[in-house]
Amino acid sequence: MTKPTLPISDSANLLDKVWDTHAVRELPSGQTQLFIGLHLIHEVTSPQAFAMLREMKLPVRFPGRTLATVDHIIPTLSQQRPLADDLAERMMGAIEKNCAEHGIRLLDTMSGQQGIVHVIGPELGLTQPGMTIACGDSHTSTHGAFGAVAFGIGASQVRDVLATQCLALSKPRVRRIDVSGKLRPGVYAKDVILATIRQLGVKGGVGYAYEYGGPVLDAMSIEERLTVCNMSIEGGARCGYANPDQTTFDYLRGREYAPQGSSFDRAVGWWKSLASPPDARYDDRVEIDGNAIAPSVSWGINPGQNIGIDERLPSPADAPAEERASLEEAYGYMSLKPGDPIAGTPIQVAFIGSCTNGRISDLREAARVARTGRVAPRVKALVVPGSQAVARQAEAEGLHEIFRAAGFEWRLAGCSMCLAMNPDKLVDREICASSSNRNFKGRQGSPTGRTLLMSPAMVAAAAIAGHVVDVREVL
Amino acid sequence: MTAIDRIEGRACVLRGNDIDTDRIIPARFLRAITFDGLGEHAFQDDRIQAKGDHPLDDERFAGASILIVGANFGCGSSREHAPQALMRSGFRAFIGESFAEIFAGNCTALGLPYAILEADDLAALMDSVVLDPEQQVLIDLEARTVTSRAGTVAARLPAGVRRQLLEGSWNATRVLLDAGDAIEAKAERIPYLSDFPA
Q: Residues 402..461 of A with a Cβ closer than 8 Å to B: which?
């Protein structure tokens, strides 16, 4: 006897509903063939996919559902073509040719809409609740801030999406993360996600999608939710999302690619129906105490290795046996000592930007701090807006003048020193206070360079002090 | 596409958890439009810093086709360049305690099996291979086991992935194309692709 097919139950969570809306069929492997509503591509992980497509003699199935930009390799001082780096110029040429050949819209540096792919999707209104989104970049989880289900993928999967607008995926389990209470002054979305990863671990999310909620998330702006969802991947989760609410709808209204007029009102009706109800089913639930979160700083070689600014560096002897080797490796690489405070650690470079913290609200918070002083001697401080639109807005508000007056360099939009595929790199053993997302060994361009992750306001404060400092002392 | 039911060969032991894809292939090697030549740069910075004392430079592991790793291997960036670099330096499969999901998805797309062992079994396998690197290690996808001189132990692999490898359907594009017009039919029923019908 076969079981009757039940309609999606009232207690289905957002991921259940979005999954069901996009499932084309169950594959012989047991995975789901999932339709991808929005595909974003950039210059690093797409040329190989287009080459595979050519080899298979396949067209792009839905060229209107893919949008391209250039972000990873783009220089932030001069974007004059041809680019000084011949390899970067070839990558630019490849995406231009591939997009032209396949009828894909490319937002290049001449468009006025170029920027980090995870910054421009939201700000153009491309990213919307209930969408499935894929991009050949692990930080695609960012788009979940709208209640979208967004996956980072590799080049072969970029080929799959170009050829079929689908992915073969297993449905993740869902862990609800409630952030309770209220954030204290000087504590930002970046601190919330750093504290979450510290608590749940860098592999705690494997097999899960993270659904963020609770009073702290409810009170957040979309830009703050983008920061939280952005680093879901750093916690091992396949994706992360927040439920759509009035904040989401207000953000989207009037944006270029958002529904317009009466379509918008109908869209809001559908978007509201997707949010997880109060009695939604979850595979796991966790609570994070928002009141207890302090401005946080990473000290090691993965984002879970972070502490509150008031704390001292943990002792490997106190850690569970299986973590001890990792901690010792981190201390060896970072040249820091257990028991020392993280406050006071000298820095040589400060980087404000990235898909985690390169939006206008991030720059406003950093500028508030920049107003209080001047960048310390021998510290190189960079502000890299996440997109051309962010740069224009910041310039309209005079933020660039505040940064420049304080001794920060005001650069052009791109990924820049988050992963250092362009000329912005650490040198040798430099320590960088960074608003980016990864403190992996060698991440910022020098194989021995060191990264301390923190909020943009904390980076600005460190730039001025010349060492790690509690931003609450200057706010 | 070829079906993959077993991988047998010598193995290389790379200890440590949370080894990220930036370490497997540093970002500066991603400034290219193909995956050509990545093999020689696998773990380049780790190897330079280890001054020759890295498992990938250990002559006893030379020619290994299976890489044995710890937990959360391949975390971080989605760059397919990471499994591509390891594949191009001769590895055909991985054995570990756990794998980051995007890395695992990329391995599947390349037909590279990843077998997951219990921590104790993995530790015993690592010790055995370090002691006797000449031995053959066998990953049997059909039987869901890994066999070495440390014995035969149970190995896990997500059921869907195992099936894709056994069926030779790990290049997903062809399989996804089989849905035919059902893709367009689904698109027509997605609210935001049809102006949000009332």
A: 419-421, 438, 440-443, 445, 447-448
